[in-house]
Design brief:
alpha+beta; nine-stranded mixed β-sheet; eight-stranded mixed β-sheet; 20 strands; 32% helix; 28% strand; globular
Length: 402
């Protein structure tokens, strides 16, 4: 590659909120840096960013000192400020985390302690006080987290792309990557275009491990897609804000919860079931090649053996609306099956280690002329601004030494 042959300085693969935040951070930190974003869809934020519950997470769940804890706490405040600055729909609503069984009370108390360690103010509530916030919700105890909010993450992603000044190429599905550590990277897309850059940034979400391997780097993890299925509450007046169960710390999933969105509707969900395709938004979407790649990873079988009871419960709630309704009724007893109307699902890109462990933090790794974001599920949308700055810092360091 000749010096004049580069199409850009930094080539970002993935037009979700993390990729666009990275582009935004690069051009803010180093004005004049040429950034190109390749997005295989016809618009931004078509997958994880645009198919979640829209919650700005407080950071209360995450291990103190972890990237998730640090970036979520910082990112929540920055996200609210960003939305206000650019006129993007948002609200700081607060949320309840409710214990409905006695065995959940120690975990609820542990969340209070974790929140305090992460610098998050929380209010502890007895059963009678829950009704102050949510008259229809029942529980033994709860905590109120005032810094939680909601926003339009698709609007945020769109604004990040516009404000970055990056060139965004849509319909640009990556077919091949040629990396030469002494020169840079060349990416060929399925429509025949070749884009050359000095540094590659991999923010491909559901396909990030594949992009890493295309680049020539072994990620050490495989993405296992978990579908999160949602219902819409036909009687949204039953819920004022956000209501969550006490999560099981053994899993990165928060359980079926109730979220009043910026449009006034109330989402119920998600569960977490294995998807039969990386973009498997329903049981009818099956891609045998992707299933084969998933099951070939030893960590998948080790994970399944370790967590089969949890998985069986999630599958039951997927195939049985009655079972899903029972899970909702633990928090909201007034709910009946007729109150739940199925709506669009999402897919979580969960990195799984070879030993079957679920990667429980954001994971960013570097290779020659490349930076790979290998695990960025929830709360990545909340934390996208600080994540973008960290990825940008690494990319600019690589660029500076190139």
């Amino acid at each position: 590659m000749r010096v004049g042959a580069y199409d850009c300085d930094v080539l970002v693969i993935g037009g979700g909120i993390v990729g666009l935040s990275t582009a935004f951070a690069i051009t803010r930190a180093a004005p004049g840096t040429r950034v190109t974003v390749l997005e295989k869809e016809p618009g931004v934020a078509r997958h994880q960013t645009g198919r979640n519950s829209g919650v700005i997470h407080s950071g209360i769940y995450y291990r103190p000192g972890s990237l998730k804890a640090r970036y979520a706490v910082r990112g929540a405040a920055e996200m609210i400020k960003f939305c206000a600055e650019y006129g993007i729909a948002h609200a700081v609503t607060g949320k309840l985390i409710v214990a409905t069984e006695r065995e959940e009370l120690p975990r609820l108390h542990a969340l209070v302690q974790r929140g305090r360690e992460n610098g998050i103010p929380v209010r502890e509530l007895g059963a009678a006080q829950i009704g102050e916030y949510e008259p229809e919700v029942r529980g033994l105890a709860a905590i109120h987290v005032g810094t939680t909010g909601i926003c339009d993450f698709v609007g945020v992603a769109r604004q990040l792309g516009e404000a970055s000044g990056a060139e965004i190429r849509y319909g640009a599905r990556v077919e091949r990557i040629d990396r030469r550590p002494d020169r840079g990277v060349a990416v060929r897309t399925t429509n025949g275009d070749v884009i050359r850059g000095r540094v590659l940034v991999n923010c491909a979400g559901l396909y990030c491990d594949e992009i890493a391997r295309m680049t020539g780097d072994e990620p050490g993890v495989r993405i296992v897609p978990f579908r999160g299925e949602y219902y819409e509450l036909a009687r949204p007046e039953l819920v004022r804000g956000l209501v969550y169960p006490v999560p099981d710390p053994a899993f990165p999933f928060l359980g079926v919860h109730l979220t009043r969105g910026i449009d006034g509707g109330v989402h119920v969900g998600p569960n977490a079931v294995p998807a039969l395709a990386r973009e498997g938004y329903g049981w009818g979407v099956v891609r045998p090649g992707e299933v084969a790649t998933t099951v070939a990873w030893p960590g998948v079988w080790r994970m399944a053996r370790r967590h089969w009871r949890y998985g069986a419960g999630e599958l039951r709630r997927s195939v049985s609306k009655a079972a899903f309704t029972r899970a909702v009724r633990r928090l909201l007893p007034a709910t009946g099956e007729s109150d739940l109307v199925r709506t669009a699902a999402g897919v979580r890109a969960q990195a799984v280690l070879r030993d079957g462990g679920l990667v429980d933090d954001f994971l960013i790794r570097e290779g020659a002329r490349a930076v790979h974001v290998l695990n960025a599920p929830s709360p990545a949308a909340t934390a996208s601004l600080p994540i973008g700055r960290e990825v940008a810092r690494r990319a600019l360091t690589v660029l500076g030494s190139a």
